Amino acid sequence: MFTLPSEYFNHGEFLAKALSDFHAMPDLFVGHYRERYDQSELPPIWMVAETMTLGS
Questions:
Q1: In the chain, at which end, N or C, are there fewer CB atoms within 10 A of the end residue's CB?
Q2: The pLDDT of residue 3
Q3: Which residues fall within 8 angstroms of residue 56, CB to CB, at 6 or more apart?
Q4: SS3 41
Q5: Whole-angstrom Cα distance, residue 3 to residue 47?
Q6: pLDDT of residue 4
Q7: Which positions ≥6 away from 42 have C-beta within 8 Å?
Q8: DSSP for 4-36?
């Protein structure tokens, strides 16, 4: 199985940036999520993917 060394991809850093970008989005579905759901849980991946940039 092919795996990338950790120097190429830092999962914790990626997740922190993705969540930061998600919570900063003014989109309606993000606001709905913030109002309705517990913020201690991670949002669904489809929501995070919708707010990610191509550079992510």
A1: N
A2: 65
A3: 14, 17, 18, 21
A4: coil
A5: 27
A6: 60
A7: 19, 48
A8: --TTT--HHHHHHHHHHHHHH---HHHHHHHHH
The answer to whether 20 and 48 are in contact (CB under 8 A) is no
Answer for the pair 51, 27: CB distance below 8 angstroms, yes or no: yes
Q: Token pair 């795996």 is at which residue?
A: 3
pTM: 0.59
Task: Burial-class residue 40 by CB neighbours within 10 Å (0-12, 13-18, 19+).
Answer: exposed
Report the distance separating Cα 42 and Cα 37, nearest Å.
10
**pLDDT tens per residue, range 7-41:** 777 888 888 888 888 778 777 877 788 788 877 77
